[in-house]
Amino acid sequence: MKRLLIHWLLTAAMVTAVLGVNVTYDHRAVVIDGKRRVLVSGSIHYPRSTPDMWPGLIQKSKDGGLDVIETYVFWNLHEPVRNQKSCMT
């Protein structure tokens, strides 16, 4: 629970810095500019699409009502050999 709270606080700080909105958590919900929000999330698995597809996928997600897009880091693509990282793949 403590890790989740730290995660929310860091996320809130980043959103506030980027968007200029006030994001807090009141132990019941995420509060954005004084309004409680239920954020709807969906996933995009970036290795399963090409980079030129990403803007369209993100727009379709927005059009479909998503507030948050999550993604996994497929670490085996970025570190195919142990301790040899490559973020170019």
TrEMBL record:
Catalytic activity, reaction form: Hydrolysis of terminal non-reducing beta-D-galactose residues in beta-D-galactosides
Pfam family, one: Glyco_hydro_35
UniProt keywords, alphabetically: Signal
Cross-referenced SUPFAM superfamilies: (Trans)glycosidases
Any GO BP: carbohydrate metabolic process
GO terms, molecular function: beta-galactosidase activity
Domain Glycoside hydrolase 35 catalytic residue range list: 30-84
Keyword Ligase appears in the UniProt entry: no
Signal peptide, first to last residue: 1-20
EC number of this enzyme: 3.2.1.23
Family: Belongs to the glycosyl hydrolase 35 family.
Protein name (database record): beta-galactosidase
Species lineage: Eukaryota, Viridiplantae, Streptophyta, Embryophyta, Tracheophyta
